Fold each of these.
Amino acid sequence: MNKKITIGLFGYGCVGNGLFQILNRNELPFAIKKICVKNINKQRDIDASWFTNNKNELLLDDSIQIIVELIDDADEAFQIVKQALLNGKQVVSANKKMIAQYFNQLYALQKQTGNTLLYEGAVCGSIPAIRILDSYYANEQLLEVAGILNGTTNYILTQMADASIDYKTALQKATLSGFAESNPVMDVEAFDPVFKLQLILAHAFGLIIPNHQILRFGIQHISSTDTRFAKQLGCKIKLIARIINSNEGISAYVMPAFIQATDALFNIQNENNALSIQPRFADKQFFSGKGAGSFPTASAVLSDLGAIENKQAYSYTKLIGKTQTELGVSVFLKVYMRGDNISNVCQIMNLEKHWTEGKQQFAIGSIALKDLLNVSDKCIGNFFVAAFSVEQTLASGQISDKSELGVFSIH
Ligand SMILES: NC(=O)c1ccc[n+]([C@@H]2O[C@H](COP(=O)([O-])OP(=O)(O)OC[C@H]3O[C@@H](n4cnc5c(N)ncnc54)[C@H](OP(=O)(O)O)[C@@H]3O)[C@@H](O)[C@H]2O)c1
């Protein structure tokens, strides 16, 4: 084999370890030279001579061509990636928070230096999402992108629905199985899928949107009443990240949603992720696979390494010449709400049904996305909201999936 491409690796945790094993156990054209970690004294499964805690040992080494950044600190990761690009290196990362937060700077740095940053592992783990949206659909209008982008919450929701256990027990199970971190806030409150949606918005729609502009509801207040209600409707509740390209502009949200059995997302179970894309001419496409984990995420990093070897970079085609800088918020969503006092929370348009059970109030109706954005801030206590469908005409004139519900009750 020809001379291998030399890699400097930052991070030897879940993903870094997976990448090390893949590169060292297979005949591949990449060789890790050194690994930078935070705690140099930590016990590792490989010889201590691999490690340093001095980032300049990697960043200033002229023999290192590619920096792979796999650490868990977004701000420090940005400093590493910035310095690597300025020092003439190509970079691969899987850090969605860092890329979402520093998107403008990272885009400018690539233009300024002519060096490449790839981050396929940042969005759906092993599913090739970014490159398809960025390159394959560079010139085709997308009408909708929707998906399950967070494995932890999908695991919890699957357990609640299938094993009929409550949220707390399902979260404990997720933690014990290694699918939830000890502090699961980024996942259960849906910050993580919002970061991923920001990357999709940039590549698929040419929009760089700060995270506070994206409607975000997590699953932290879900109760067994909600999952039972979904079952009665023949649905499952999933945490859905969705971008809709309609006459009202491009709207986006991350929130729980009732998914019908006819929807491919219905069968995405446990820690798996999925992405559904609706291009204007190609029509619906569906991708599913492991959204996280050591080897699945390292597989995406490996693919990025190959892309860099082949001198590929993101096209960012849809960003060029884009004038829209804000999301559309006039779109109406049909939602189910439950809480201690939902009548005080917001104005529901077209109230279809409302009822109470003990102290809990329930309502189903349509609400403007901009009104729901105000609710996010007030979302305290026991408030749970889930979307049914988007009652909106899509840009092509196609009507999005509407779920017409009959009369129902909760037992
Ligand atoms: N885990 C997944 O399934 C997954 C999936 C998709 C994307 N990602 C992303 O991939 C990245 C890595 O995730 P992970 O799960 O592998 O993290 P992790 O298991 O928590 O490991 C983090 C690693 O980063 C190192 N580190 C932290 N700060 C550092 C610094 N300032 N300089 C050098 N090294 C530093 C740590 O060093 P020590 O070992 O010394 O503590 C550790 O080796 C994150 O951005 C994550 O969002 C992860």
Note: Residues 391-411 have pLDDT under 50 and may be disordered.
Amino acid sequence: MLLTIRAFELALLRLFERGAVSGTTHTCLGQEYVPVAVSSLLTTADFVFSNHRGHGHYLARYDDPEGLLAEIMGRQGAVCGGVGGSQHILRDRYLSTGVQGESLPVAAGVALHLRTAEPGRLACTYIGDGTWGEGSVYEALNIASLWRLPLLLVVENNGIAQSTPTPAHMAGTVAGRAAAFDVPSLTIISDDVTLIRDLLGDRVRAMRADPHPLVVEFVTRRVGPHSKGDDSRTREQLAQVADGDWARRYAVRFPEQYARADAQAGARIEAIVRDVSARPPSGSVIS
Ligand SMILES: Cc1ncc(C[n+]2csc(CCOP(=O)(O)OP(=O)(O)O)c2C)c(N)n1
Ligand SMILES: [Mg+2]
């Protein structure tokens, strides 16, 4: 799945370069392991709220590169009839939005519903470090803490918000801000999926048994541009980021598995790109 998401994102950037897709997109290159690890702890009865950088969140949950690519390209088979595009996907209990911070109050409301009507289930929201500049984040944290809502807030702290480095926009820390609302938090610096699952498994089980919010901050890296070609970082910073990419380390640690999985994922995505590109426009509304 890690490599499927990677191949999907790289293929998408190539499609944009060729002018085969219009609009915008934000890839999760470098952050693929976050949803791969988190999704393994969720069930389809849990809600997931995603953001503008959400392809990995969707793919890790549904393994549906075909439906997502058709959605982004506005072709038949699109998961939302081609009206949502890259950032606005609705499928069952999965919803993404390009509006920073919008998901959190909505997820808190859903978590309240789950707490009372469907105990044992939770609402999971992914947000970035920059989105901690939105007031709605704090309103949601406050209520989630007071009402002990089963809200899993996954923070993908990739060290940058579009072009602003995190230290230039965030006073204090994510953990400190969670603590201010009496919400427990965990900061994960590893990109090892198995280790992350082990670190989080008991915490997520505890949220289900005795509902409460939890903030999980991943210290991660945005290996690609913010959107398509817009990267404001220096050559040295980019080299440093590329050096820390999980894919490099996985390739060294598991060379045979990596090469095999990478080739398989690449071939699968290329076939999907050919197939979806040849389809007629979706021309439909959400059913
Ligand atoms: C309410 C709102 N303000 C501004 C934007 C424009 N915008 C899109 S992505 C982004 C940066 C988000 O940074 P972060 O939360 O760190 O997520 P990242 O892009 O790093 O994954 C901004 C400002 C937006 N989409 N919504
Ligand atoms: Mg960020």
Note: The pocket of magnesium ion (ligand 2) is lined by residues 128-130, 158, 160-161 (CB under 6 Å).
Amino acid sequence: MIVYLNGKYLPREQAWISPEDRGFLFADGVYEVIHSYRGKLFHVDEHMRRLKNSLAGLKISYSNIPEIREAALRLIQENGLKEDATVYIQITRGTNFPRKHAFPPANTAVTVYVMAYPITPRDPERETGIPVITTPDLRWARCDIKSVALLPNVLAQQQAIDAGVTDAIFVRDSVALEGSASNFFAVIDNVVLTHPKTNVILPGITLDVVLELCRKNNIPHLEKPIYLNQLWTAQELFLSSTTMEVMPIVQVDGRSISGGKPGKVTRKLQTLFKEYVASLP
Ligand SMILES: Cc1ncc(COP(=O)(O)O)c(C=O)c1O
């Protein structure tokens, strides 16, 4: 496997960073995850826009987006990734010594890392739907920045696995916000609901695609908060993300949702999503 690190294409085993990298010391960095379908990057412009916003949010000076796009495409080629694959991009505020919280000198080089690897589509789970738990949202107030500081997300996903389910939904102030690595939707009174894109969720690229599919296909939809107590009577619940696409939820905290089976609207959106991906040049 060939990866990209600070201007060089290297075998993965030869890619090393300093232990003084601020990504390692402070989680001082941002990332992106892009799906590659048949060797083509999905909504790459949107991912690059979000990457720029994340960098701006953390005041990391880096604007060489063409470098990232080129590395992503070249790694897909070099690693022969003709089917489903993921491109992972991470940029940190670079290395400085001695360790100090405040930003390093302005001329400090950022660390740029890109890798690409095959993924197995989660078709079996998309067919049956997944069980989830709810968990208190312990994250900071800038969840709209795709920062590598993911400890609450790590703990939430492990809590789910320890509970014998697939994922966890973050709940803050009685509002079900999003999954540990996905956006969250409910179908209530035949309307597809998802949280407005504010500071308390990550503005998902897949979320936007789902809303656009709703719009184009006359499926009623609204961006508004989903309260925890609405989950038990919701017609359907589902998650969206780059790797999950549209993932039905069939159980929350041990309680069955939509009769324990993926709902009609979720199914429709799964089909529309597949058709949309297949239609891309
Ligand atoms: C917290 C969180 N919310 C939502 C998403 C979904 O975003 P996207 O559709 O861009 O993958 C992710 C993806 O990793 C995430 O980590």
Note: The pocket of pyridoxal-5'-phosphate is lined by residues 33, 178, 181-183, 202, 204-207, 240-242 (CB under 6 Å).
Amino acid sequence: VVKQEPVNCGVDKRGSSSIAVALLGAGGWGSLVAGELKHVPGFELAGVFDADQARSSTVADRLTVEVYKGLDVCLSDPGVSAVIVAVPNDRHVELTAAALAAGKHVLLEKPMALTVQDAEDLARRADAEDRVLMLDHIQRYYAPLRAIKELIEAGSIGQVLAVSVRRRDLLKRTIRWLQLREHVGGLLYQSAVHEFDLLRWLCGEAVEISCTSPGRPIAPELDYPDLILSQIRFQSGAIGQLWNCMTDPMPAYDGVVTGDEGTVWFDLYDAQVRWARVGEDPEERDWSPRDRWAPWAWTSGGGIADGEAEAVRDMLADFRDSVLGRGGPAVTAWDGVRSVELAQAGYISLATTRAVDLPLSGRDRIRKAHLELESSRG
Ligand SMILES: NC(=O)c1ccc[n+]([C@@H]2O[C@H](COP(=O)([O-])OP(=O)(O)OC[C@H]3O[C@@H](n4cnc5c(N)ncnc54)[C@H](O)[C@@H]3O)[C@@H](O)[C@H]2O)c1
């Protein structure tokens, strides 16, 4: 693989004024994200590489782009400035490191890695190569959650004291790697990692996490717990609480943020935000149609809900602007590191039944505690 010269000017080596992007991993999510590139001015999908050649061809045909026959072929293409890495979680480090070494900017799916040490290595590589390494923590682009952030920044509820979020999903789990903690990491890496990022966004750095779980998975095909409750303490003094379930027949995504001057309540899947200052009447905002962020709004053809599609486009536009040097991404590589650290510390907490201090140090930085749980099926 020949390392690419820095291309930050927005004019790629194909002579186009668009940034050419390649998709690495053309599965369910990666192909949806890549499919939204056509709606983001300044981006062009150049081609697709998937370890499964038949998958590569199907997705490349659908998106009318080139198939790369190998990873090296893709990464050696001097016309490609950036890649989207959307492979199984345990392959993120290997593919991202190769892409950075080839001089590509990377939009990496969550979780960044399965240990904080691996995640930090990637963040340092990106810094050393002067490449953008952005994490797809899509929550930061959902309009109702952005509205909450704006209310907090406007001082509408004063200083944040406590946040509670319940995410109850019925996630697809027919794909083999998603059933195995060895590949997926488990619920904290796959799903709660989004809420770790969300809570850090609202509350700042975490200093302690404590997790608990009934242990046995609700879904028999999984070898890891699919219901985990977390309590987090933040440097600011704020406290956070998460209810994460991947196997709930009544999906919901709601929560509350309490400050010293008021409270915000939200229901993402019903697209509502309501807030009140102490002593004042509540105000509210909603988005139409009300189920635009709900998982059941996904089309039967395997499409993407309108709200989710808008969030993906905003996230891609943020990536484009970062590649063009117009400011850093909302979710940096170092944000990705901190979310991985919360997931890892959460599993250490489950394995030791104790609260765990952050940042992790010593052996805990490489500890794969998600593989240690006795309560999981082996
Ligand atoms: N940000 C989000 O909201 C969000 C949502 C869903 C999934 N994801 C993430 O996206 C990633 C992909 O998830 P998915 O649901 O699309 O899974 P998937 O199984 O549908 O797709 C993964 C694809 O990667 C391919 N692959 C495996 N190893 C490869 C390799 N070494 N090189 C190239 N291709 C390889 C597989 O053949 C498969 O086509 C995961 O990291 C997942 O956590 C993120």
Note: The pocket of nicotinamide-adenine-dinucleotide is lined by residues 24-30, 49-52, 55, 86-89, 91, 109-110, 136, 138, 175, 190 (CB under 6 Å).
